[in-house]
Amino acid sequence: MLAMILLMSLLAVGASQGGEDANLEARWRREYPSAAAELESATREFVAKGTLKIHHYNDDEVETRNFRTAESRGRRVVVLDEQTRTTKSGKKESAGSRVYCWTPDRAFTLRKPVDHSDYAIEELSSTHTLQDMTWLNWHFDLCIPVATHYNGVSLCDRINDHSFVFKSIDLAKMDDMDLVRIGYEYEGEFQLESGRVVLSPAEGWAIRSVELTLKPKKGGNPTEQKIEVKYRRIADKSWFPVSRTSRLGVPKYGTYFGERHEFQDVRLGDVPEEIFKLTAYGLPEIPDRPAPKRSVFTWSNPFLWLTFLAAVVCFTLLWKTRTRADRAA
Fold it and tell me: Is the dihedral of CA 237, 239, 243, 246 positive or negative?
């Protein structure tokens, strides 16, 4: 009899928990799309300044003391200035500066070597889509702050993809805040994802953390990925990701790639046009397209005047010759 009572109690608790999870899932699916759109709007027009530290697989670390990034009307720029490299042995050395920029008309990479005061053009291309610019896209995915994307794909796009498999949903606590933890599986373009993403309803359903196992689709070693993001409300407009820590580890070799950036100064809207131009970095501006050829039919063309004068002389001589012939007749 006691066993029956315990069994019924467990079933009731399970049914109650299942109902709560179903309500939480329904709320997430109902509120998240519009909340994500609002979060994305905050990172469409911004300028952010801070610091960046990157840990490479070979255990070298590169620290950027003057890290700047901006986006405006689809244009993107990342500036890595005052970089210092620390090798595995502990040796420190200057690593120069770099600029990565993309606009619908042009993409370029600039480099300022150590002990140089001027930037030089390293890559320059025009009329390419951002997806084709793999040498730029990697830096933007790493450095451009977003509250709805990771690994180059938004959570909304994952959810709407036919390969997305919803596994679980529950509540969690972090920094004294109620968070929503979602378990899932997803097949991306190059890898399979399985794990959890944690969202913060109080911060517009922004992504607070990600914990995934990534398996390459075309061979390679599985990796373990962890991402943590912190936010601050900027100018009472929206939640902006001001800090992110990420780690991509390869358990087989015990190595990892890590990144941490923090923004101390963030401004939304009114992004200066100059920041997307070569002139902002001490270089002459190169036209996006060749200048049109000057028309030969212009009064400033001396050959046009000579041609006109020759025509007048010929007409005068012809008129005089014809007049003499008429008189002789």
Answer: negative
Q: How far apart are CA 191 and CA 197, in angstroms?
A: 17
- Is the distance from CB of 98 to CB of 110 less than 8 angstroms? yes
Cα-based torsion angle of the residue sequence 68, 70, 75, 76 in order, rounded to the nearest 10 degrees: 40
DSSP 122-181: EEEEES--GGG-HHHHHHHHHHS--SSEETTEEHHHHHHSTT-EEEEEEEEEETTEEEEE
| Euclidean distance between CA atoms 32 and 40, whole angstroms | 12
| Helix (H) or strand (E) segment spanning residue 24 | helix 2-42
- If you write DSSP's letter for every residue of 188-252 in order, what string do you get? -SSEEEEEEEEEEGGGTTEEEEEEEEEEETTS---EEEEEEEEEEEETTTEEEEEEEEEEEEETT
- d(CA 144, CA 87) in angstroms, rounded, equals 26
137-153 residue pLDDT tens: 777 777 777 799 999 89
pTM here? 0.78
Q: Tens digit of pLDDT for each residue in 230-286?
A: 999 987 778 999 999 999 999 999 999 999 999 999 999 889 999 999 999 999 987
Phi, psi of 314, rounded to the nearest 5 degrees: -65, -40
